[in-house]
Amino acid sequence: DEYIVVFSRSTTRLILNEAELIMALAPEFQMRVVTVSLEEQSFPSIVQVISRASMLVSMHGAQLVTSLFLPRGAAVVELFPYAVNSEQYTPYKTLASLPGMDLQYVSWRNTLEENTVTHPDRPWDQGGITHLEKEEQERILSGKDVPRHLCCRNPEWLFRIYQDTLVDIPSFLEVLKEGMKIRPSLKKSKPASTVHPG
Question: What is the protein's major site of localization (predicted)?
């Protein structure tokens, strides 16, 4: 019984039309879709569900480390919010391509600013920008692409990565179908004896 897992988030980086996304995935791939949530389920129960899934769909975030538990040949589908360039943030793409993982990686990026909900009034570490000078706030709000930066405290990065996203279903399905054309080759292999650093 093949199925797709969608990571559901309840506080930040929401998929605003999650139900619509699920309803589009099921008939497109002729599989049932189940949701998992770090806020509502135990980690072992999430791992158990993911370990038998054919596909894992999630907004960019640490929960994607659970793709480690996907079976060989499964797909990892990472969604990126508006103005976040998927080519610059590749830890889960790298994870999927490690020797012995044999996962298929596909990314979708929201390119429509009207399909995003920002939260400038949140605390700085959740993407808020009201603590910044007015000029800096305006620069961030008008940005179309987060520039490369050193990790984690960059206000432009935080502002954009904590957005909520309305997924454009037609473009998402198009990217997904195109990305799924090339499947990983599942050669018989001995268990990897080498540990690969993340």
Answer: membrane
Q: Is 176 left (phi over 0), alpha (psi -120 to 50) or beta?
A: alpha
Q: Where in the chain is the domain with CATH 3.40.50.360?
A: 3-111+166-181
3.40.630.30, 3.40.50.360, 2.60.40.760, 1.10.150.20: CATH of 3-111+166-181: 3.40.50.360
Residue 26 CB: number of other CB atoms within 10 A?
14
Per-residue pLDDT of the chain (198 residues; tens, 9 = 90+): 899 999 999 999 999 999 999 999 999 999 999 999 999 999 999 999 999 999 999 999 999 999 999 999 999 999 999 999 999 999 999 999 999 899 999 999 999 999 999 999 999 999 999 999 999 999 999 999 998 888 788 999 999 999 999 999 999 999 999 988 876 666 655 555 455 555
Q: What is the total residue count of the chain?
A: 198
